[in-house]
Protein backbone atom coordinates (compact mmCIF):
# COMPACT_ATOMS: atom_id res chain seq x y z
CA UNK A 1 0.00 0.00 0.00
CA UNK A 2 1.24 3.49 -0.69
CA UNK A 3 2.01 5.53 2.39
CA UNK A 4 1.26 8.85 0.75
CA UNK A 5 0.27 10.53 -2.49
CA UNK A 6 0.54 14.22 -3.32
CA UNK A 7 -0.98 15.94 -6.30
CA UNK A 8 -0.95 19.52 -7.48
CA UNK A 9 -4.42 20.27 -8.85
CA UNK A 10 -5.43 23.06 -11.18
CA UNK A 11 -8.70 23.75 -12.96
CA UNK A 12 -7.12 22.13 -16.05
CA UNK A 13 -6.68 18.79 -14.23
CA UNK A 14 -10.30 18.54 -13.17
CA UNK A 15 -11.82 20.00 -16.33
CA UNK A 16 -14.56 17.72 -17.68
CA UNK A 17 -13.67 15.98 -20.92
CA UNK A 18 -16.53 14.05 -22.51
CA UNK A 19 -14.05 11.65 -24.14
CA UNK A 20 -12.65 10.52 -20.77
CA UNK A 21 -14.41 7.78 -18.82
CA UNK A 22 -13.65 5.62 -15.76
CA UNK A 23 -15.22 2.71 -17.64
CA UNK A 24 -12.25 2.77 -20.03
CA UNK A 25 -9.79 2.45 -17.11
CA UNK A 26 -8.72 -0.77 -15.41
CA UNK A 27 -6.99 -1.36 -12.09
CA UNK A 28 -3.51 -2.65 -12.92
CA UNK A 29 -0.46 -3.69 -10.89
CA UNK A 30 2.53 -1.33 -10.97
CA UNK A 31 5.24 -3.18 -12.92
CA UNK A 32 8.05 -1.00 -11.55
CA UNK A 33 7.50 -2.34 -8.03
CA UNK A 34 9.20 -5.62 -7.07
CA UNK A 35 6.63 -8.47 -7.27
CA UNK A 36 7.05 -9.25 -3.55
CA UNK A 37 5.76 -5.76 -2.68
CA UNK A 38 3.39 -5.27 -5.62
CA UNK A 39 -0.38 -5.12 -5.10
CA UNK A 40 -2.63 -7.27 -7.27
CA UNK A 41 -6.37 -7.14 -7.94
CA UNK A 42 -6.67 -10.56 -6.29
CA UNK A 43 -5.58 -8.92 -3.01
CA UNK A 44 -8.96 -7.17 -2.95
CA UNK A 45 -11.13 -10.09 -4.09
CA UNK A 46 -13.59 -11.01 -1.32
CA UNK A 47 -11.62 -8.85 1.14
CA UNK A 48 -14.53 -6.60 2.08
CA UNK A 49 -12.49 -3.55 1.02
CA UNK A 50 -12.86 -1.19 -1.91
CA UNK A 51 -9.87 -0.23 -4.02
CA UNK A 52 -9.74 3.38 -2.89
CA UNK A 53 -7.90 5.96 -4.97
CA UNK A 54 -5.51 8.20 -3.06
CA UNK A 55 -5.12 10.56 -6.02
CA UNK A 56 -8.73 10.66 -7.19
CA UNK A 57 -9.51 9.54 -10.74
CA UNK A 58 -12.06 12.34 -11.15
CA UNK A 59 -9.33 14.91 -10.50
CA UNK A 60 -7.57 13.81 -13.69
CA UNK A 61 -10.24 14.07 -16.37
CA UNK A 62 -8.23 16.17 -18.81
CA UNK A 63 -7.06 13.04 -20.67
CA UNK A 64 -7.79 9.33 -20.68
CA UNK A 65 -4.12 8.58 -20.02
CA UNK A 66 -4.12 10.82 -16.94
CA UNK A 67 -7.20 9.05 -15.59
CA UNK A 68 -5.76 5.62 -16.44
CA UNK A 69 -2.62 6.51 -14.47
CA UNK A 70 -4.72 6.85 -11.31
CA UNK A 71 -5.76 3.20 -11.66
CA UNK A 72 -2.30 1.78 -10.95
CA UNK A 73 -2.59 -0.22 -7.75
CA UNK A 74 0.32 1.81 -6.39
CA UNK A 75 -2.23 4.66 -6.08
CA UNK A 76 -4.78 2.47 -4.31
CA UNK A 77 -5.29 1.54 -0.68
CA UNK A 78 -7.94 -0.64 0.94
CA UNK A 79 -10.88 1.47 2.06
CA UNK A 80 -14.14 0.56 3.70
CA UNK A 81 -16.73 1.05 0.96
CA UNK A 82 -19.87 2.09 2.82
CA UNK A 83 -19.17 4.99 5.15
CA UNK A 84 -15.78 5.96 3.72
CA UNK A 85 -14.83 5.36 0.08
CA UNK A 86 -18.36 5.72 -1.29
CA UNK A 87 -19.43 8.50 1.09
CA UNK A 88 -17.11 10.69 3.20
CA UNK A 89 -14.00 10.22 1.03
CA UNK A 90 -16.12 10.82 -2.08
CA UNK A 91 -17.48 14.03 -0.52
CA UNK A 92 -13.93 15.22 0.19
CA UNK A 93 -12.93 14.55 -3.43
CA UNK A 94 -15.91 16.56 -4.69
CA UNK A 95 -15.09 19.48 -2.38
CA UNK A 96 -11.49 19.55 -3.60
CA UNK A 97 -12.80 20.11 -7.14
CA UNK A 98 -14.82 23.11 -5.94
CA UNK A 99 -11.75 24.60 -4.24
CA UNK A 100 -9.56 24.09 -7.30
CA UNK A 101 -12.03 25.98 -9.49
CA UNK A 102 -11.10 29.11 -7.50
CA UNK A 103 -7.31 28.49 -7.22
CA UNK A 104 -4.80 25.67 -7.44
CA UNK A 105 -4.40 23.36 -4.47
CA UNK A 106 -1.95 20.72 -3.38
CA UNK A 107 -3.69 17.69 -1.98
CA UNK A 108 -1.86 15.02 0.00
CA UNK A 109 -3.26 11.74 1.25
CA UNK A 110 -1.53 9.77 3.95
CA UNK A 111 -2.46 6.20 4.80
CA UNK A 112 -1.29 4.02 7.61
CA UNK A 113 -2.20 0.51 8.61
CA UNK A 114 -2.53 -1.13 11.99
CA UNK A 115 -1.12 -4.33 10.50
CA UNK A 116 2.04 -5.04 8.58
CA UNK A 117 0.14 -7.18 6.08
CA UNK A 118 -0.41 -4.34 3.67
Nutshell version of this structure?
With 118 residues, the chain is α+β, with helices and mostly antiparallel strands. The protein has helices at residues 11-14, 64-69, 81-85, 88-100; strands spanning 4-9, 49-53, 76-80, 105-110. The strands form 2 sheets. The protein has a two-stranded antiparallel ribbon. A two-stranded antiparallel sheet has the order 2-3.
Output the keywords.
two-stranded antiparallel ribbon; alpha+beta; 24% helix; disordered C terminus; single chain; 19% strand; 118 residues
Summarize the structure in words.
The structure is a single chain. The protein has helices spanning 11-14, 64-69, 81-85, 88-100; strands at residues 4-9, 49-53, 76-80, 105-110. With 118 residues, the protein is α+β, with helices and mostly antiparallel strands. Strands 1-4 form a two-stranded antiparallel ribbon. A two-stranded antiparallel ribbon has the order 2-3. The chain is globular and about 40 Å long. Mean pLDDT is 82; it is low at 114-118.
Low-confidence sequence ranges: 114-118
Reading side by side through the largest sheet, how are the strands ordered?
1-4
As a percent range, the share of strand residues is: 15-25%
Overall radius of gyration = 14 Å
Write the layout of secondary structure elements.
Blueprint lengths: L3 E6 L1 H4 L34 E5 L10 H6 L6 E5 H5 L2 H13 L4 E6 L8
Antiparallel strand pairs: 1-4, 2-3
Amino acid sequence: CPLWVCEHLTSYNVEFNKDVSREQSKFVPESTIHPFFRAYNSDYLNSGYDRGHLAAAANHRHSQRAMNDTFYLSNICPQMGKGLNRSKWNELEKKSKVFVSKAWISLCSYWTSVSANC
